[in-house]
Amino acid sequence: MEKWDLVVVGGGAAGFFCAINAAARQPGLKVCILEKTGKLLTKVAVSGGGRCNVTHACFDIDTLSRRYPRGTNFLRKAFHHFNPKDTIEWFRERGVELKTEEDGRMFPVSNTSSTIVQCLLQEASRHQVHIELNQEIVSLNFVDGSWKLQSAKGRTYQTPKVCLAQGD
Ligand SMILES: Cc1cc2nc3c(=O)[nH]c(=O)nc-3n(C[C@H](O)[C@H](O)[C@H](O)COP(=O)(O)OP(=O)(O)OC[C@H]3O[C@@H](n4cnc5c(N)ncnc54)[C@H](O)[C@@H]3O)c2cc1C
């Protein structure tokens, strides 16, 4: 059984962002991403027509939250923790500049989603996030104070913290 401080299920945008930030905030934390397919960040690569619409140039949290009526309250709280300004700064600190189009959408200056994919891959590598491909997690149980995950291939993982980021 493999032991990790944090196991992230899903190698998409959410999984990478969680894993990178956890590892960056706590150096030495043993973080692992488990991805069921043989590829990482596939949706990010195709997002925004291959350019990746990273965020939106709307810096008023109430206005931004109201754009999604069913989730306004949830988003308002979330944006108080991390909002478009933080997103812009997060990527700028890692050498990725974003540009704003006339309608407010923000894309990497390079105009290609591969800039975002490469940034996330490099950050994961820099913070020693361990990544396993072709590991579909099929069960998750809380046993004796820790999470036990099992993959379709029969590998088992034990961790006190798990992040489920397997998308929709
Ligand atoms: C064509 C298209 C264009 C888009 N354009 C934009 C855009 O420009 N801007 C924008 O913000 N959003 C865009 N989106 C939406 C955006 O891509 C998604 O909201 C985002 O990528 C979701 O990220 P995620 O990490 O939550 O999920 P995903 O990207 O779906 O990642 C989840 C990962 O978990 C893996 N997984 C699932 N189950 C398991 C399991 N049991 N065990 C292990 N791994 C598992 C999956 O294989 C996948 O790799 C677009 C989406 C599409 C399809």
Task: Compose a concise summary of this entry.
The chain is α/β, with parallel strands linked by helices.
Structural class: alpha/beta
Task: Just name the CATH architecture of the largest domain.
Answer: 3-Layer(bba) Sandwich
CATH T-level topology of the largest domain: FAD/NAD(P)-binding domain
Helix content: 25-40%
CATH domain class of the largest domain = Alpha Beta
| Strand arrangement across the biggest beta sheet | 1-10-9-8
Largest sheet descriptor: 4 strands, mixed
Number of helices: 6
Number of strands: 11
Q: What is the mean pLDDT?
A: 97
Structure description:
The structure is a single chain. With 168 residues, the protein is an alpha/beta fold. The chain has 2 domains: 1-52 and 112-168, FAD/NAD(P)-binding domain; 54-110, no CATH class. It contains 6 helices and 11 strands. It has a 4-stranded mixed beta sheet, with no helix packed on it. Helix 1 (13-25) packs parallel to helix 6 (114-126). The relative contact order is 0.25. The mean pLDDT is 97. Flavin-adenine dinucleotide binds at residues 9-15, 34-37, 43-44, 46-48, 52-53, 136-137, 165-167.
Labels describing this entry:
FAD/NAD(P)-binding domain; alpha/beta; 6 helices; four-stranded mixed beta sheet; four-stranded parallel beta sheet; 2 domains; binds flavin-adenine dinucleotide
Map the helices and strands.
Elements: E1 2-3, E2 6-9, H1 13-25, E3 31-34, H2 42-50, E4 55-56, H3 61-66, H4 72-81, H5 84-93, E5 98-100, E6 105-108, H6 114-126, E7 130-132, E8 137-143, E9 146-151, E10 156-159, E11 161-164
Parallel strand pairs: 1-10, 2-3, 2-11, 3-7
Antiparallel strand pairs: 4-6, 5-6, 8-9, 9-10
Helix pairs in contact: 1-6
The protein binds flavin-adenine dinucleotide (FAD).
